[in-house]
Amino acid sequence: MTEQHLVALVALEGVVPFDLGTPTQIFGTARDEHGHRKYDIQVCSPGGLPVVTAAGYRVTPDHGLELTERADTVIVAGISFGGPVEDGTVDPPVAEALRSAHARGARVMSICTGAFVLAAAGLLGERPATTHWWWAERFRELFPQVKLDHDVLFVDDGDLLTSAGVGAGIDLCLHVVRTDFGSEVANRAARRSVVPPYREGGQAQYIERPLPRPADATLSATRAWAVERLDAPLSLQEMAGHASMSVRTFTRRFREETGVSPARWLLQQRVDHARALLESTDLPVEVVARRSGLGTAAGLRQHLQSTIGVAPSAYRRTFRVVPEGAGG
User: Fold this and answer.
1) Is the pTM of this model over 0.85?
2) 116, 87 in Cβ contact below 8 A?
């Protein structure tokens, strides 16, 4: 990875403006503690020509597809019309640019219906992917071999990453920033963008009631209470008791508000806290596991491995933030 990670954002005819703006906003605000940008994000199109957006106006990128030849990451923004979503085809120059970038080791991503472009270019094959739930049936018709999961926010399959629609692109971009440069940089970008710092990729795209009605009681106070007690055992009964609800009602309401079960949410909070401790402290792994409520070093290792695919020691070596003035 270069000192400033180069991101090539591909805009095609019918590009969705929100999907075009999401990566530029998130990657553009990803900075270290000194304010230095971690990414150089540039927009490109076939021939560097203007493209018509889904909103009807045109955008004129500064680069042609040759930008993808040197990018560390290539992102295809979602589209609302054109060959990929209409008949499963993509212009040969676009397909060649994406395949070449992937072949030389660049990370390739899509936002929303950009997954149609990746599939049409032959990149997804039989690999797991996602797209906007509204387009899922159409996607399966055109690309039945792809292992589409329309019920998640994003899929990280290593060198190929896909997101669901609209806001899920934010989640994927923050996930990538966190993977590249750690939680502090990602959280800083989230704060600048005034968005939640983390929603796990496996969370449901469509939540029955994402915001409680004004007359309803919210469970945010109970979630905040639980986050302050991650180092202690927390049972479902205790969380329901704090919310003054039965376990059954609490579980239903919790899933309605967050899209996941209380147990899954609590585990993710513990893993996130462990990652933050690994990044910001020199605490032994056993202590990190205990303070994050994951029990033992073996438990921490298991959960970190299943979540992001690395061991605690490897994660710390990669993302440890050394305070300014420390070291030589």
Assistant:
1) no
2) no
